Amino acid sequence: MTIIQDILKTMDYGPAPESPAIVDDWLAEHADGFGHFIGGAFTGPSALFEVTNPATGKVIAKVSQGRAEDVDAAVKAARSAQPGWAALSGHERARYLYAIARHVQQHSRFLAVLETIDNGKPIRESRDIDIPLVVRHFYHHAGWAEILEDEFPDARPHGVCGQVIPWNFPLLMLAWKVAPALAAGNTVVLKPAEYTPLTALAFAGIAHEIGLPKGVLNIVTGDGETGAAVTGHKDVNKVAFTGSTQVGKIIRRQTAGSGKGLTLELGGKSPFIVFADADLDAAVEGVVDSIWFNQGEVCCAGSRILVAEAVAERFEQLLRRRLATLIAGDPLEKSTDVGAVVHPVQLERIRSLVEQGVAEGAVLHQGEAPGGCFYPPTLVTNVQPASILATEEIFGPVVTLTTFRTPEDAVSLANNTRYGLAASIWSENINLAIDIAAQVRAGVTWVNCANLFDAGAGFGGYRESGFGREGGREGMRAYLAEPRPKSRSSESDLPALKPYPSDPVAGGTIDRTAKLYIGGKQARPDSGYVYPIAGAKGNSGLASLGNRKDIRNAVEAACKAAGWGAQTGHNRAQVLYYVAENLAARSAEFVDRLISFGQTKKAAESEVETSIRRIFWYAAQADKFDGAVHQTKSSHVTLAMYEPLGVIGIACPIRMPLLGFVSLILPALAMGNRVVAVPSQTHPLAATDLYQVLDTSDIPGGVVNIVTGERETLTKTLANHDAVDAMWYFGTKDGGRKVEEASAGNLKQTWVEDGAARDWLGADGQGRTFLHHATQVKNIWIPYGE
Ligand code: NDP
C-alpha cells in the first residue's frame, strides 16, 4: 500500500485515468462504419476507411470516403433547406443555436473523451478548453442570430457554405465555422479532416437530437479529394477553410472567378517575444501554453521564441528546467501535459524537419516521451533565422530560441516570415509591449499571455496566414454577403493600346504628355511610349504607356511611404480635407477636362462635385471608422484595431474617370494605405490632373502612385507582386478571375468586381463597405483587471 511518506518522496501524482467506456460503447454501436450526415439523416456506410487512436495505434472506427456524388447530394440538401432556414426570424435560429450549445454541454464529457481518443490531445485540454469553447461559440452566435437584423441591417446570408477543417481542434474548428454560418441564415456542408472525423459525426447526432431542420447541416467525411469536391462545388456560395497555407493557395486558385465568398485561416510561425524586463517565470508558462499545448499542433502556436540577449541564458535555463517536468503520455490520463501526435505521418514530418534542423547545426533539448506516436517536448537552440526550423510550420511540440538586442531587432525578426497569424509579447513595460504589438504584422497579438481565445474576439491572419476572421463582429460579417450594387455589368474587353513613338508625336510632344506619378514626382514611362486619349473632337491628349518596370517602381515608392499608416486618423483627415478643398478650387478645370472627353457639361459638373463631396466624406471617416474593445475574459480585454492593409493595387473602371478613381483611392488613403492606381484606361487624364492637386495638399510622396496604360497588363504585374498586400480590380469578369488566381502567390486580399456599371454617383459609390475592404482587424489581448 502506498503511504503518505512514499508520496512525499517524489510528489508524483497518482494515476487518474479518464474512463473511455462511454465512447467505447458508442463506437461499438457503430462498428459497421459511419455514413455521411446528409439531409438530416445518416447515409449507409460505404467506401470505408479506418480511423485510429494515435495514442494506441488501434483502429477505432470506420468512416465513409465521400465521393463527388455524396458532396453533390449534401450540397443539394443544403440548397433546398437554405431559403426556409434564412426565412426564420433571427430569434428562431437563435433558439436552435442555444439548443445546440446546451446539448453540447450535456454531452461534454462524451465529446471530450471522443476528441481525445480520436486526436490524441490530453483530456485536460479537450475537457477544459476545446469543449467549453465550443459551447461558448454556439451561445455567442445564438446571440448574433437574435440581434442580426439590428446589427447588420440589410444583410443577407451567402447561401450554402462549404467548410473544410483540419485535425488539430476538430470540434472547435467545426463550431467556429458552423455557428456563425447558421446564425447568419446559411446552410452548411462540412468536411472534417480524414484523421479526426468522429466528433463531427457525433455533432451531427446532436443536430438531429435538437431537431435542427433537415439539410441545414450536412457532414461529408473523406480525404483531401472530398475537400476539393466541397470547395469546388459550383453550387456552394461561400468557402471557409482552415488548414495549411499550401492547400489554402490551391483553394484560392480553385475558387478564382467563381464569385464565391472565401475566408482562409492558414498556417503560422508565430513569434514569442520576451523582453529583458519580462516576468520570466510567467513567460516560461506562456511558452508551455503556447507550443506544448495540443502537442504544438496549433496554427497560432508561439513556435519562435525571441528573447532579449540580456536574459537569454537565464530564460533558457528556466525553460529547460520546466521542459523536464512536462509529462508526455497517455492522453486519457488527467495529469498528462503532452499527448499523442495526431498520426504517424505527422510524426514523421516533425522528425524529418527536426533532423534537417540538426543537420544545419541546431541543438536539441528534449523532454521525455513514450514510444509510439509521441514526440517529446523540444526546445531548439543555435538556430539561424534562415533555418528550416525557424521558417517552416512544424506543427509539433518544437520551439526555437533566438536572441535579439534591441526592440527594433525583435520586430524585424518577428516579421521575418511569410506568415502573420499571431504573436505573444512579454514585458512588464506596458508602453513597450503595446508599441511592439502595433508593429508586429499579425492578426492576433497577446500581451503577457498566449493562446487565449474567445468567441467574442476575431481570430485570423495577415499575409500568408490567410484572410477573414472567425469570431466577433468581423467573423459574423464574413458569413454575410456584401450588399450588391444595384446596377452592375461587366465591362467589355479593351483593345490593346497602340504605342506611338515618343518623338515626334502628332498633335503634341512628350513634354505635354501626362506623365506617371511615382513617389510624389512626375515620371516618364520606362517604355518612352505614349498613347492618345480619344476626346469629343479628336484626341484630347496623350497619356504615358506604363509597363511592368513602372509598376515595380511605383510599388517600391509605396513601400517606402509606410509612415502614412502610422499617422493619426486626425492627421490623415486634415490632409484629405485639403485635397478636397484644392480640388474644389480647381473644379472648373476638371469639368473642362471631362467635357473634352465628350461628357455633357451637366454630367461633368455632377462628376466633379460628387468627387469633391466624396473626398470630404472619407476625410471625415479617417478618424471615425475604428475598432472595438471586447470584454473577452474577466482578466483581459481585447482591442480590435482596424489596421491598414499596406500597399493596395487599384485598377479603376473605365467609366467615370475622375469619380471612379476618387471613389477607390480615397477609402484606401483614409484608412492609412498607400496605393498604386491604374486609372481609367480610356480617359486617365482626369486622374493624372489630380496629381497637381495631391502635390499641393501635403500628401506625402509615395502614398499615391499613378501608372497609366493598359489596365490588364498593369494589373497582372500588381496582382503578382509580393510587396502588394491587396488588389482591387473593377473591370471585366475574366480580369477579375485572373486577379484572384494571381493573388494566391502571396495570398493578397482581393476585391474584384465586374462592376463597370456600379453607380458611382449614387449610394453604391461610397460607404463602409469600401472602408472594410481597406482594413484588417488586429486583435490585441491585454491584461485588464483581476
Ligand atoms: P491540410 O491543409 O492538407 O488539411 C486541412 C483540411 O483540408 C483537411 O480536412 C484536408 O483533408 C483538406 N484538404 C486537403 N487537400 C485539400 C484540397 N485540395 N481541397 C480542399 N480540401 C483539402 O493539412 P494536413 O492535414 O495535410 O496537414 C499538413 C500540414 O499542414 C501540417 O503538418 C501542418 O503544418 C499544416 N496544418 C496547418 C493547420 C493550421 O490550422 N494552420 C491545420 C492543419 C495542418 P484531409 O484531412 O483528408 O487531408
Automatic annotation (TrEMBL):
Region of interest (Disordered), residue spans: 482-502
Ranges where the Aldehyde dehydrogenase domain occurs: 49-480, 544-756
Active-site residue list: E265
Entry EC number(s): 1.2.1.3
InterPro entries assigned: Ald_DH/histidinol_DH, Ald_DH_C, Ald_DH_CS_GLU, Ald_DH_N, Aldehyde_DH, Aldehyde_DH_dom
Superkingdom of this protein's organism: Bacteria
UniProt-recorded Gene Ontology molecular function terms: aldehyde dehydrogenase (NAD+) activity
Keyword annotations of the record: Oxidation, Oxidoreductase
Keyword Oxidoreductase part of the UniProt annotation: yes
Similarity annotation: Belongs to the aldehyde dehydrogenase family.
Descriptive protein name: Aldehyde dehydrogenase (NAD+)
Organism, as annotated: Amorphus orientalis
